Amino acid sequence: MRDDEVNNKNNNINSENKENKKENKNYNIDIVTGDPKKAIKKLSWPIMVSMFVTFAYNLADTVWVAGLGTESLAALGFFMPIFLIIIGLGNGIGVGTNSLIARSIGANDKKTADNAAVHGILITVVISIIAPIIMIFFLNDLLLLMGAGSVAPLTSEYATIILIGLITLLLPSVGASILRSEGDVNRAMNVMIITAILNIILDPIFIYILNLGLRGAAYATIISSLISVIIIFYWLLVKKDTYLDVSIKEFSWSPKIVKDIISIAIPSTSETITFSIVSLVINFILSVTSGPIGVAVYTAGWRIVNLAMIPHIGLGTATLTVVGAAYGARKFKKLIVAYDYSIKLGLAISIVVGAVIFIFAPQISMIFSYSDLNLIPAISDFLRIVSIFCIALPLGILSSSTFQGLGKGFISLFLTVQRALVFEIIFMYIFAFVMNMGTAGVWWGLSLGGLVGYLICYLVTKLYLREIDKVYISPRN
Fold this sequence. Notes:
The protein is mainly α. It is built from 16 helices and no strands.
């Protein structure tokens, strides 16, 4: 075969590969902008798997730390509100970036979508440098204020390591959000599976074999997260086979894009801070009613509530992307269909999950109390009471995600604040102290307050979408 024939054959192969990549990219975009019901089903399940594996390595921390005793488990619990803020920083920027990219894709504005992706990464890097400096400086005082008391030094050791490695926790969040915003949910899922398996392997090695105790759990988390950073940004910056062009060469600083991302990121992060405030209040009340044991029960039991949230977070992320793309394309009927469908699917899941938690509460409790069997009845009681809370989850999570997709981050924040800071805290205070129910009152207040707040979230969202229907859809018919 002659050299020119070989070159022509190689050129044809390269052209075919480029076309295949282009078709794959366009296929993902077609999913996002296509039928909303099919899009939510196709986009949500890989996100759910990603969330489940994330839960798995968080659960691994709890299970392995539980073997160190009640004090270590309580120390992990006192850091939980701070950790939620850390994760909220990454998720907030990711949600803001995802929302803007999805709306830009819907409006066929790829240049803005590309630029938004780079802005999201740069904002994350800046926050990853500034936030640890501030948080470490106030860490000890904050832990004492939270009521950590005798476990404050142990909590501080764990927290300092996590804060120093903050960038490894935040960058995967925004990187995965960029992939998901263009419908590339499978690779975001795959990298989380790899990360989870690595963390589960490293936990016992660092905690027990290297005898680092609670510090070992922190090192395992940082190292496994670093791997996800390397993989995701290899795809985005080196391999460059995504629909979005994440390139510094094409980057153009835009205050408008920063404002758009921040206008979603701040409310989204504030929602996480709101959750942290509620956790602080719960820890404080429990430190009064039952001490470290109550905090340990809440820490262990809340892991199961987090597990129950995962399907709805997956549905919510998919709904955010689909609603954002539909809103950008001014296809308002699609976004209403997307919300209604996700609510129906979410309620079907939550009813089943709530029933399973209620029925198998004792068996589930054993996972978190193998080093202290006395905790089993207390965790079991907690789980059975909060199963009510779990059933109502989709009404709040999917409503917030819908407003984030619309670019209405502060409405989403309002819905969270009225539920968590108003109804949950007031109900907990009434049940725990006014009705003198103690620790059980905290659980009942959390569940019933959450139920009322979630119902309000649903009603507000339906009223807002009804107005969209009146203004944009009905006049056309």
